[in-house]
Design goal:
Helices cover 34% and strands 13% of the residues. By secondary structure, it is α/β, with parallel strands linked by helices.
């Protein structure tokens, strides 16, 4: 394969740090040069950085690739993401151009599920609220929530949702679940009882969202859905911010209709300083970092490099738009 004189594998914006400095990048040396940009680019900068690239390693979802961006990248053959989600990429345009997109399903499921589990506990034990109260010099005692025996509603039982169900069962929670494709076999394997979406909302003490962002799931939790939830129930979102209508969530939290929320994802990231969710008392917030542990980071770096090498060796793997391979 002729890589010419220019590096063909480009990381266009690795901020916050994901893959820069990883030893896994050394494994790409036989396949061509690698350039890693350590800052977050503007829309114009990202195009200039990858104009001659055959492969993009998109280490940060904040660097997006829409139709107009992709149209100018005539040499591009593959985009690899350091994640499961591919919502930073216009898949239809990539497919039409013959650009394959590769992700990493399940690679950090255990890491992410543990983080979501931690958010649920932090909300139940009022950790953020009571920490703020104590730091402000107030000895405010508000009742915690005992989770054993309570019902967890898992929305989406893929790799992350199924691991979350396992953790919840281990501490004695009851687990109900909803998925697009429930089967008795999946219910037995994951230790859940599949129910309808509205029934899950009405019966769960904690609702956890673990689905990808698609046209079908965008805004799946709005005013109607929150109205179906138990008074005082918790909502935990480790999927994507737009799964939830934020205005409805803020109203429900401020009114006390919901007892709390644990969020790792938001409509706008980074979260603006004036975002309404920051005014809510009973929330625990983390900055989209559920898989950000040393172990999780390196698992994703390893997987990204594995996907690049497999593609360049003619054995593509984890391709989310296989039709692109036929057009390539």
């Amino acid at each position: 394969m002729n890589f010419e004189n220019r590096p063909t594998i480009v990381v266009p914006g690795d901020e916050p740090i994901q893959i820069q400095g990883s030893a896994h990048l050394d494994r790409l040396e036989p396949f061509g040069g690698v350039i890693v940009y350590a800052d977050r680019p503007s829309d114009q900068q990202k195009i200039e950085r990858v104009r001659d690239a055959e492969v993009i390693i998109n280490s940060r979802g904040a660097v997006t690739w829409r139709a107009d961006d992709l149209a100018s990248l005539t040499k591009l053959r593959l985009i690899v993401v350091c994640a499961v989600g591919t919502d930073s990429i216009d898949l239809q345009t990539a497919t039409e151009m013959g650009v394959a997109v590769s992700n990493q399903p399940g690679r950090t499921a255990g890491v992410v599920a543990e983080h979501i589990f931690g958010l649920m506990f932090a909300v139940a034990k009022r950790a953020a609220y009571q920490t703020i109260e104590l730091k402000s010099g107030r000895w405010t005692r508000r009742e915690n929530v005992f989770l054993q025996g309570k019902t967890l509603g898992v929305v989406g039982t893929g790799n992350i949702g199924s691991e979350l169900a396992r953790l919840a069962n281990a501490i004695g929670m009851q687990v109900v679940a909803w998925t697009f494709h429930p089967t008795p076999e999946r219910a037995r394997r994951h230790g859940v009882r599949y129910v309808g979406f509205d029934e899950l909302l009405a019966t769960a003490d904690v609702v956890s969202l673990n689905v990808a962002l698609t046209d079908e799931t965008r805004g799946m939790i709005g005013e109607r859905e929150i109205g179906l939830m138990k008074p005082g129930a918790f909502l935990v979102n480790g999927g994507r911010g737009p799964l939830v209508e934020t205005d409805a969530l803020v109203r429900a939290l401020n009114s006390g209709q919901l007892g709390g929320a644990g969020l790792d994802v938001y409509d706008t990231e980074p979260l603006p300083a004036d975002d309404a969710i920051l005014s809510c008392e009973q929330v625990v917030l983390t900055p989209h970092m559920a898989d950000q542990t040393p172990e999780g980071t390196e698992r994703l770096n390893e997987g990204a490099v594995d996907n690049v090498i497999a593609f360049l060796e003619g054995k593509p793997r984890n391709i989310v738009n296989p039709e692109a391979l036929e057009r390539s």
